[in-house]
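Database export, one record per block. Field names are fixed; values are copied verbatim from the stored entry.
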Amino acid sequence: MDTDVGPVEYIVVAFPGSRFRGEIVPELKRLVDAGIVRILDLTFIKRDADGTVRYFELDSVEADEAAMFADLDGEVGGLLSEEDLAVIAEEIPAGSSAALLVWENTWAGAIVRAIRDADGVLVTHERIPASVVEKALLAIGSNGAAS
């Protein structure tokens, strides 16, 4: 495995009423095929109406659901602990399912290598929330220029 790993992130997408139909998969496949991201883990979480929580890795979901992910390359498997999953599951509404996706931003591997080769040390890496960026871009658009 390459040691120049880009930033690793995760998202949890809930589907009220457990209505996951797979519309996200083609875009995810496009990102993987383009080398922009590498999937490190994919876990499904189901919280029944009574609050009972179950976890499923891709290899244990029903065949018709797993088929949506058949063309999706990745190193799926167990990156998060059961304790991590339990904390995440607390946020899933009863009667819903969720997909937890962990990916590496592979596009950043080259800059990681360049920083390392320059004896640089990453001091901070933060993500600016999309809502903040959208607001700033709207302000620029209405003013005609950045301030």
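Remark 1: The chain has a mean pLDDT of 83.
Remark 2: The radius of gyration is 19 Å.
End of record.
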